[in-house]
Amino acid sequence: MTAPSRNALVPFVSVDNMMKLVLHIGVERMMAELAAEIEADFLRWPLFDKTPRVASHSEVGVIELMPTSDGETYGFKYVNGHPSNMKKGLQTVTAFGLLADVATGYPLMLSEMTLLTALRTAATSAMAAKWLAPKGARVMAMIGNGAQAEFQALAFKAVCGIEEIRLYDIDPAATVKCARNLAGRGLTVVSCTSAEQAMEGAEIVTTCTADKQYATILTDNMVGSGVHINAVGGDCPGKTELHRDILLRSGIFVEYPPQTRIEGEIQQLEADHPVTELWQVIAGQAAGRTDARQITLFDSVGFAIEDFSALRYVHSRLRTSGLYQNLDMIADPDDPRDLFGMLLRAGAAQAA
């Protein structure tokens, strides 16, 4: 059989090659560069197609597709969220994504996105905090010490200058794991036995828990004035982390309101409760933090444009890194009208 044509081949970034790319660039440097890429795309937010993610819910989790396009490049991510997977020794979140050329519809790259989602989620959190957190914040509480925790800690160190991370999880083993992984990375790591202890002295509070239920990780009395809350765990209908009263005291910033009102912390509020879109703050069209005593809340649910930014970042490094494989994914007959003839010729070649 003849070798696949150039048009048939699509670069694929495997988990192994993604890990090599991250380690080659450096975790913190890649996090900072991803944050900059995402911020740049937020500045051109009006150019993008925007739609809430297409979700298929079950009793045990959710499977979602997250598409967007800037008119030149199209991207989508497949992602699941299954909190009970951890008990089976499986990841709670897995993902892969694709970039395509709008002009032809041909794929440009297929990539793992389990690791890349962890990186882009943390980079987005830190990018938002750069605009919303108290000036000079150096201490962050990290409540929920699962798979995302280390990424969040290092992103906030790289982008916001966090120096101390205070850890708490209902599972002490998760805190031990997180503290071990962060050792020697330039952070003061404090392991705590309660959420209240973790929040002592914290100017930024990140919540990142996985249970698919209405939960109250933070109660109103735990949150003093002047803090920035980075709420990561609430990301689908029926799944929250913050008491409603905290929301009523906070300036709330979101990615895409039609999606966040369904999936975020603000699903607890009335449909017309005022929120500010983060891209407007970055573009200078809306105020971010207005005073030192204000509570700011980034109600993060993850939006397709952030995945698009991350995929484009990886795609831009394919040629220089060489960390990809070519997959024979696109049928490319000599005559575009003769797809069946290509099949017949392949059969003849096999029989010869």
Automatic annotation (TrEMBL):
Gene3D superfamilies noted in UniProt: NAD(P)-binding Rossmann-like Domain, ornithine cyclodeaminase, domain 1
Coiled-coil regions, chain positions: none
Alphabetized Pfam families for the sequence: OCD_Mu_crystall
Domain of life: Bacteria
UniProt cross-references to SUPFAM superfamilies, sorted A to Z: NAD(P)-binding Rossmann-fold domains
Record InterPro entries: NAD(P)-bd_dom_sf, ODC_Mu_crystall, ODC_N
Protein name, per record: Ornithine cyclodeaminase
UniProt lineage: Bacteria, Pseudomonadati, Pseudomonadota, Alphaproteobacteria, Rhodobacterales
